[in-house]
Amino acid sequence: MQTKSFIYNANTSTQNKPLTHIDEAVIEDSHGHWTAIIAPPMTLTAALLWQHGISADSALIIHKAKVNNKFHTLLKAAQSPTISAIVTWDDELTADEIFQVKATMKTYNTKCVIQSNKRLH
Question: At residue 95, does pLDDT exceed 50?
Answer without folding.
Answer: yes
